[in-house]
Specification:
binds pyridoxal-5'-phosphate, 13 helices, seven-stranded mixed β-sheet, alpha/beta, globular
Length: 351
């Protein structure tokens, strides 16, 4: 596949902004090049525009060449950049597989880029033939979310590989929840598919949603394009430092992930046998999708008791469903106590 032919003409032609810190890369004793304030505040200097140290550590952890890593101000920035690099407004389209994460569509809508929807199957799997049938010459980016939000499942590997080998554009696999999953990351397929972009984030398993740090693992060419289009200093100095600190304490992160996985099982146990619970979907994430007899009623009931869950009952293929994030043990226990007292209305409607 020819990556260049997928890129918007204006982006191919773009001469990117050249910052002071990217024009001089060595070490100097006196920096008078960037109009910074010379008095030390801890933050008076611009951050490293390419996050070299952080990418080194991430590359080490993920066994990926740092030149194949891009870091964004949250995965949300990466989604936005990919759409703006590859999709010409009012001409090109992305493909999404609902029910899925909402930001793919919002970013496309903001960029005035079309959105083709190919719903998942009733078992929440992608339908490769339907995707390929729908895609036309101006369909540039396919977003796959695996494990998927809000359904919680990992997609079958063969279906994803079918799409990777046949889809005539960029395939983004959003692995925001991969650390809660028993499935391996598709990072291992990077060498096989030049059109693959794997996204991960510091927001979930790493417990750093407030930092806003997302990662993309992809070809060097795609990293080059992302670097060309990103704001020069998109990752601030505090975020880079906090991520480096977190990477030094991986054991704490791994322990918390194990606790969350244990609590996920506890939550499923709690929910099993409640008479208003109709279905508990298997989860490879830190949340559980649950079908209940009266989702709006249950949602309001919990809010009245100070507990907020996500009502997904108006989302396609998710009629009757609420999404519950796995909390700390005492939080899950408190939810359970309230659920024990809950009485669903008679003649409840599922939607
Ligand atoms: C939570 C989540 C993210 C994280 O986005 P950030 O911008 O990195 O916080 C990405 N994708 C999906 C599907 C998510 O659910």
């Amino acid at each position: 596949m020819n990556l260049d032919s997928l890129v918007r003409e204006n982006i191919r032609q773009l001469k990117p902004y050249s910052s002071a810190r990217s024009e001089f890369e060595g070490r100097a004793e006196v920096y008078l090049d960037a109009n910074e304030n010379p008095f030390e505040t801890g933050l008076n200097r611009y951050p490293d525009p390419l996050q070299v140290e952080l990418k080194g550590e991430i590359g080490h952890l993920k066994k990926v060449d740092p030149e194949r890593i891009f870091i964004g101000n949250g995965s949300d920035e990466i989604i936005d950049l990919l759409i703006r690099i590859f999709c010409e407004p009012r001409r090109d389209q992305i493909v999404i597989l609902p029910p899925t994460y909402g930001m793919y569509r919002v970013s496309a809508d903001i960029a005035d880029v079309g959105v083709l929807e190919v719903p998942l199957s009733s078992s929440f799997e992608p339908r490769p033939e339907a995707v390929l049938e729908k895609a036309g010459p101006n369909t540039k980016v396919l977003f796959l979310c695996s494990p998927n939000n809000p359904t919680g499942n990992c997609f079958e590997r063969s279906r994803v590989e079918h799409l990777l080998s046949q889809f005539p554009g960029i395939v983004v696999v959003d692995e925001a929840y991969i650390d809660f999953s028993s499935a391996p990351s598709l990072i291992e397929l990077l060498d096989d598919y030049p059109n693959l972009v794997v996204m991960q984030t510091f927001s979930k398993a790493w417990g750093l949603a407030g930092l806003r740090l997302g990662m993309a693992f992809t070809s060097k060419e795609s990293v080059g394009l992302l670097n060309k289009v990103k704001p020069p200093y998109n990752i601030n100095r505090l975020s880079q430092q906090a991520a480096l600190n977190a990477l030094q304490d991986r054991e704490k992160v791994e322990k918390r992930v194990r606790t969350i996985l244990g609590q996920r099982a506890v939550l499923v146990q709690y929910l099993t046998g409640l008479n208003f619970v109709e279905k508990i979907y298997p989860s490879e994430t830190n949340f559980v999708l649950v079908k209940v007899s009266a989702p709006d009623h249950l949602y309001d009931y919990l809010v009245d008791r100070g507990i907020v869950v996500r009502n997904r009952s108006k989302v396609q293929l998710c009629a009757g469903c609420i999404r519950i994030t796995v909390g700390r043990p005492e939080e899950n226990e408190r939810l359970f106590q309230e659920l024990l007292d809950y009485r669903a209305p008679k003649n409840a409607e599922t939607t």
